[in-house]
């Protein structure tokens, strides 16, 4: 089956950017476990200092009066091997919100922040443009000779359905539909939905190792899973591989599933290795 993805032709593409916070821990104990909620809280507090209304938008996700979405995802706190340096990233799919956020961060006078009980000095902000198509092409080249792909869910992941039912197992169709819908809302690309269904039908799990995790935010509990799945894609035609890589690239940049603004659903994609998984 041959088909084309409508990329950028019918849309005026918005600039997508990543803001990385480069940190040095100067006090307290490093947070353990899932750090998504505490990382987001610290990020929003920084924004709030300069622009309280924007912080509210980023927290709530949608401003009905302005018809504006926040539309971002978060990569939670990570440490270097030395444990002295750390960082987290906020990736934006809409340029207007990204630009406003960056402006508010540059206005903020606060140079330190607390993540959990750890105190960090903000050493610098790194800003880069995100281009899913470029990452998609890189993935396609890296995976070209592989029969199967490894999808690694590095932070707790869950998928939501229209009935508010939460799926806490790997579900490729929900993951792909999520990315396809995101790309359309972000005015980046339009992938016919029937092609997403056809693509999923040609893929199969040949290995799965996941575990369930419960994340607590105050009194609320969020079920999810982490781990890996091995997906066979040998039977895909070239155009289908390109579509799959674009969907996966979007997931790598902007996370997958629900709760992405709190760091859920961080995804890593790589060729399948023959080594034993742990």
TrEMBL record:
Domain of life where this protein originates: Archaea
Limits of the CRISPR-associated protein Cas6 C-terminal domain: 151-266
Coiled-coil regions listed: none
Record protein name field: CRISPR-associated protein Cas6 C-terminal domain-containing protein
Taxonomy of the source species: Archaea, Candidatus Marsarchaeota, Candidatus Marsarchaeota group 1
